Amino acid sequence: MSGTEQGGSQGLKFSMSRLMVTILIILLIAVVAYQYGLQQVPQGDSSRTKRIFGLDKAKSNILADIYSDVDGDRVADAPQEAARWIDPDAILFSYVAAPNSEAYEKAWRPLVDHMSEVTGKPVQYVRFESARDQMLAMREGRLHVTAMNTGNVPEAVCLYGFVPVAAPTKDDGSQGYTMKIIVPAASDIKTPMDLVGHSIAFTDPGSNSGCKAPMVLLMSDFGLEPDGDYHFVFSSGHEQSIAGVASGKYEAAAVASDMLDRAVARGDIDSSAVRSIYESEKFPAAAVGYVYNLKPELADKIREAILGFKVTDTSITDELAEGVVGFAPVSYKDDWALVRRIDSHVSADTKSTSASNGG
After folding, report:
1. Is residue 288 part of a domain?
2. Residue 359: CB partners within 8 Å, gap ≥ 6?
3. Is-contact 286 152, C-beta < 8 A?
4. What is the pTM for the complete model shown?
5. What is the DSSP letter of 108?
6. What is the pLDDT of residue 264?
7. Which residue has the higher pLDDT, 228 or 290?
8. How far apart are CA 350 and CA 347, in angstroms?
9. CA–CA distance, 204 with 182 (Å, rounded to integer)
10. Domain containing 204: what range?
11. Does the pLDDT at position 62 exceed 50?
12. Residue 51 CB contacts under 8 Å (≥ 6 apart), including other chains
């Protein structure tokens, strides 16, 4: 090879190396920017923030036209025509969808076995990584009995035919949880109005108690605009938010009361390290129910199985809040009123100070 050819070859290699380095640097910057964006939302543009979170548009939470609701409970009635009923050979069951749900399959085995005994049918656990997949499976007949997170219940009911039957209940008969805004015990922040000019940690955009509920309630009840009156960051979870407030990393955080109770009970934080400045009305916990078009006799047996199951001393206790002993009946119309109020909130420069529990 001639010197000229060698020089050209070396120059080409050098140019390719520089190009690859440049591409790697650009990719690295993009990854860092993306990760930072998940934790810190650009501040100062309240209208943009509302659009990002869908708070500029209301959700009606009205039952879809394909369903009927003769009794007015806001839940789809079973079809009147027997030809539209489904009576599967095997009942397909899933707990709340999660990316890593293998542990749920083992934990919920006692309920699966109990349901099989009561209905006389085999019950098979199926996994879903997202609530969207879970709801689509109900519509398509690939899921018959399931549990939905609190915030997803209205959509599942209105658009996918979910019939909430029960929610976890404690030995004293109490159900549900509240959303709390907590601050470090020594903080000068005493009320939600004191959050003006400060920062609050939300868990993630899809969380009811960790993000959506506090953002909406701060707007509707206190007139506080996100990225206008206060700033916010994402912690990635209730545990992280609680620990961050206890350590002083966060000035404030919105968390679920049962998650806070669990963190204290486990010894993750000292209860004296944090202080609550706001507590919402009670939200129902995750609802267990079935798809509306099951054969009525089968639906009745499933309802019986859910309500008659005792959680105590089973593997399910580790998946539910402290003190849960079983499941108690729920009323979607009444128990999800606050959730529907949050979903139907219209933020376009109309700040309501009403604290009513309207639908």
Report:
1. yes
2. 61, 74, 333, 337, 340, 341, 344
3. no
4. 0.70
5. T
6. 92
7. 290
8. 6
9. 16
10. 177-279
11. yes
12. none
